[in-house]
Fold these 3 entries.
Entry 1:
Amino acid sequence: MSMTVGTSGGPKSDINMTPMIDVLLVLIIIFMVITPLTPKGLEALVPQPPPPNQKQTLSDQRTVVIVIDKDHNMMINSEPTDENRLGARLDEIFKTRAERVVFVKGDPSLDFMWVAKAIDIAHGAQIDKVGLMTAKVEAGQ
């Protein structure tokens, strides 16, 4: 490493790297701060099987389940409905209920797009929590 002493020799043509590194560090910090840290996706609830020695209560009988079969037909607790009437029917069901929870059960051969549509409609009907039911959960009940 060489060092120049004195002012002889004219202007210095070395690049000063310190300000460039400072600017890059500031940019990195800015991008880290503005990048959202929340994960994207759907929040899902899975109903838990009841304890073995407990009777079903009235609230268990009031559970709302949207069932979508392989032909894309929708039912709310065994009551047939379709995609257009689902939101209005959910609004009607949850008018008098304080707890706004609904479960969605789709046929295993069904594309997830249909389940996602039902979840979107439920969120549009101001449902607080939407859970997913699977075959494994049902077998445990």
Entry 2:
Amino acid sequence: MSIEELATLFGWCTVVNFGILIFTSILLTQFRKWIHSVHAKMCGLSEEELNQRYFAYLGQFKILWIIFNLTPYLVIRIFILGAA
């Protein structure tokens, strides 16, 4: 696999995972009551506990996205520009 192909792979991973992050953020803000009712029935958690878990999920997903998708993509792009 060439460095350009690797950059393309990380670029698409970054886009797809950012889309998932945005999609889940929109769902959790726009359909909060419905999602709370479903998860409360499934897990038996209060609304406050669910809010904390949603916030932790979004924060952890964002950190993992930055570490494993965005940062490698930017480093490869900088390496490609520096090698040119």
Entry 3:
Amino acid sequence: MRRVKVFGGTMAAAAAAMALTVSAWANPVKTEYAFTTGTNTITVGEAVDSVIGKLGEAGDVKTLTNCANGGKDKAYIYDNFDIYTTQDAKKNTVVESIVLKNDKVATEEGLKVGQTPAKVMEIYPGAKESMGLYTVVLGDTQIVVDCGFSNDKVVSISYENYIAQ
């Protein structure tokens, strides 16, 4: 009789461990902010060639003046968002920032242009506010939400690299 109880307890423990493993796999812990559009996920620091390969050609591409790396930065202009690039330490062209321009796209957490500062704080309770800019950090990324000069609604949302100070 005792063996049955021990075996049953062992099986219950194994089932619980398996459930936790499946749960962690189904809902992995986020380590950085990423922008998802359609079936494509983009992160700051990602190689631009990879991003353009996922998204297709931009509606417009602008070369940005930047004396730090010889004017090689670019802005890839899409309908609902823009991708800004720079060169990393190894001179690879990478995504420097992603800017959401309208309410046709949202952060993975559900924030859109046009929503209120109260919604920003509901979605990102740890956000720090300064002069209408709300910043939330996760790993090496940050989301900066601009609520305009009157701090009454979200006018743009940007994903950026974060360097701890």
